User: Fold Glycosyl transferase group 1 from Nitrosococcus halophilus.
Amino acid sequence: MATTNTPRLRRILCVTSNFPRWSGDSTTPFVLHLAQDLQALGWEVDILAPHAPGCAVTETMEGVRVERFRYLWPETQQTVCYQGGALINLRKHRGNLLKLPLLVAAEWAALMGRLFTRQYNLVHSHWILPQGFTGVLAARSRRIPHVITVHGGDVFALRSPLMMRFKRFSLHHADRITVNSSVTEAAVRELDPGGTPIQRVPMGVSSNVVARDIAPVAEIRARHRQGEGPLLVFVGRVVEEKGVRDLIDGVGLLRAAFPEVRALVVGEGQDRPELEAYAASSGLGAHVHFSGWVQPDEVRHYMAAADVFVGPSRRAANGWVEAQGLTLLEAMVAGVPVIGTRLGGVVDSVADGVTGLLVDEGAPQQIAAAVKRLATDPQFAARLVKTARANVLGRFSREASAQAFSELFMALSGQGEKYPT
Assistant:
């Protein structure tokens, strides 16, 4: 009697507190990209995320199935996540702390609902809290593996005794932890010494190169670059810890040597009005332009338009540091020399003097000096760009990241080579 081979199940339930709310939303696109890349490798990925005002409860977004759970009514009260992220929302609006237990309970209930109605190989939680906690409880109840991906802010911030206990519990009872950098790994080890195995898997960036001479890039340069320049570009959340104030001060210091210097701040954030006012009061309103939110596909054009990309992040009051520096990597692919901060996981992404330049946090004078060096030594800048792009394509591409996750997931679900425990 002939036998047929039934394909083995390869399905992941991914739970996250941040995800694009609609097509074109710039909220943590790397979570969507990883899901898409895993599906290209043969996995089926379902996303579970909090609902937000104005977004669909269920949809298929760019080929990925998404379900968003409600945790408060009316929906306008759902303000813990998105709009800069839960950490910022909890810090800026203390009333969100009262909503946090409702979010956690709703997330756990939604997880259990999915696990009882559909079969999965494993649960993949982005961020330790609350996803790592709810994911551990749900996955253990169904006796399937659970992987926590730590992005940095979740381990560096939330340091109260209660939150530390929740984080330790979640990390200790996961089957595997992935981290994006050496500094994130060290912080996890401090929380869970000798516990759950850790694998370093950086989030990947697109390897698509944008040419500077294409029309959208040329239009941005024509609109924002003045005379001899240089044009500096920042992309990210416009919040204090991203260091935009230091960039503004750096522009002020550069005016003597480069009277036509301009800085373009791309992104939105809760501190934008304050920082715009600061630029104006410093006499730099004409030199620093805040473009606001742009479509994710357009971000690459803004990066490619830069003479120098600056990512001057600094340590936040709650302990947050830049855990990887994805925008720096994206700028490298765009063929732009980068300046980052000698802080957190940025040191893994930028090799000082080899793939970019590093400065101390809160040091606008060093930012100005680094820009001047790149602007006055184009051969040096070109060497950095060439080395940086090759490094990113080899170590930090979306393809490499997805392949590493896929191999880990296959091992945990019994379909591939076992990882050491």
Notes: The CA atoms of residues 221 and 279 lie 21 Å apart. The two ends are 41 Å apart (CA to CA). DSSP finds 16 helices and 14 strands in the chain.
